[in-house]
């Protein structure tokens, strides 16, 4: 499937009426997984050239922002914001 077809499929899935319903997640995970999940989310939101990935380009900017906020919130709740910043400094 090309990018246009993938975008149409995701756009269709995201337009299902129940997709806007709020859910509550109550999951206990280790700090290690939170840090890795944050890195995966951050990497998934950007393509190799640093721009937003083509797959997420069909989403409204608010949705992308909400995904970024979720990753930051997880780091904050796990007390790992400073660790992430230090890791970014080491890799720069």
Number of helices, where a helix is a run of at least 4 consecutive DSSP H or I residues: 4
Helix content: 55-70%
The shape is globular
| Overall residue-averaged pLDDT value | 85
Find the count of extended strands (DSSP E, 2+ residues). 0
- The radius of gyration is 15 Å
Strand content: under 5%
Estimated structural class = mainly alpha
What's the end-to-end separation, in Å? 35 Å
Major beta sheet, specifics?
none
User: What string, H for helix and E for strand, traces the elements in order?
Assistant: HHHH
Low-confidence spans: pLDDT under 50, at least 5 residues?
none
How would the blueprint of this fold be written?
Elements: H1 3-14, H2 31-45, H3 61-78, H4 81-91
Helix pairs in contact: 2-3
Question: Would you kindly provide a written description of the structure presented here, covering whatever features stand out?
Answer:
By secondary structure, the chain is mainly α. Helices cover 61% and strands 0% of the residues. The chain has 4 helices and no strands. Helix 2 runs antiparallel to helix 3. The longest helix is centred in the C-terminal third of the chain and has 18 residues. The model has no long low-confidence stretch (mean pLDDT 85).
